[in-house]
Amino acid sequence: MVNFNSIKELIELAKENKTTIGKITMEYEMEHSFDSKEHMLKSMEDNWRVMQESIERGVSNKDKSLSGLTGGDAIKIYAHRDNSYTGKTVMTAAASAVGVSEVNAVMGRIVACPTAGSCGIVPAAIKTAAEKNNNTEEEIVDALFTAAGIGLVIEANASIAGAYGGCQAECGTAAGMAAGAMVQLAGGTPDQVGHAVALAIKNLLGLACDPVAGLVEVPCVKRNGFVAVHSMVAADMALAGVESVIPVDEVIDAMDRIGRSLPRTVKETAEGGLALTKTGKEISKRVFG
Amino acid sequence: MRGVFDIVGPIMIGPSSSHTAGAARLGLMAGKILGEPVAKAEILLHGSFARTYRGHGTDKALIGGLLGFSPEDERIRDALDIAKERGLDYSFAPVDLGDAHPNTAVFVLTGINGRKITVGGASVGGGNIEVRNIDSFQIALTGQYPSLIIVHTDKPGVIRDISDVLAKHRVNIAFMRVFRRNRGQQAMMIIETDEELTEDIIQDCRSTGVIENAFAVPAI
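The joint structure predicted for all components is written out below.
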């Protein structure tokens, strides 16, 4: 029986079996869900297909959300990518992540990863990595299982819900999942995956979840773009050989403790932070009366 | 610990897993419990659902679910128009249910063949739901398993009779709960199973005696 309760255990299992964290995660899921390998691979391929469709729609999206607050920014970022300071790869990733998040806001189809509010980060990061490395679909699906394994550990030991842990739990978890998947797609080791997860999460600790009017729009949509790029930096540092001084599981414990001690006003209640700004309150009044 | 496809997934229509995907699943489940196409739906919204439903498209998702759309069906966005085209008469009203879960909806439904039922449930996070009332019975049903719902008289042997039927058809019981109004009066049994519940199983349940009604609700 495959079992893991920490990223360290996931890494050790992958090393012992000379395989990837994704394969260990799939083994675990097969044993716990009584699902077949074929069906699980098919489900993950379906997820990847929907992720790609949401990126395509996202970077050309002109629709506005129900509130009118978001929609139409991804296409601007995408058009700017050749003239940007950060370069074409980074801007394309940002546009993709913002685009997927816009698709979510206009009631389009997305893959929650781990949540709807953070749905743009992992797809954008994986697409960026796969294009650079010319990864096969099989490798991409395996990287998605790796991302899932990382998310499962975080969910078990901290939280993936903004209402419990603030935005660090949603976008922070997505960043860790994305960074780990990118390292694997570049051929990095399981240890490097762990360092990438730690680096990504460490630098988003304490992030508030303070959405204006309680909607998954401001700051969520654009934040997906920022965090996708953040996860790329974490993956690059880990691939360069940079190690996190604090081990990844201790980082996740810190995230849990910070999440518990954050005031409820910044845990998806729309009673603090950006939601309580003058403009935030005006928007809330306009949308909900 | 949850599963891989709760972390990477589900595929859903945005913007919110609790206020949109969960709402669609609640509507879908209420429609399945009614067991026939919905002609009229009065939907009462409590808590956060009542305050924020327009911004999250909760109304579209609830109606989309009642129309049989899954949480990943892009028609949810146009569900209110589709409902009008199909002659589904719907209305929304706020309600104060005290300390009920903040994302609670109550569906007062009439089917096209006149069947009436009231179903109350909550969107409990991550797109997961829990149906908490069917008519005046306090129950708990997640929609993750095929479910057998039996309305019967509260007396000894009924549970054995029903479990005999399931054993005969080689259906494994995952979870089972019984509810009753008062001793010896009307009761409700909810059995969640690992296998699908076919029509012949339901017929066998109905013929066990002291059963007022038996129906299956598929997993959603």
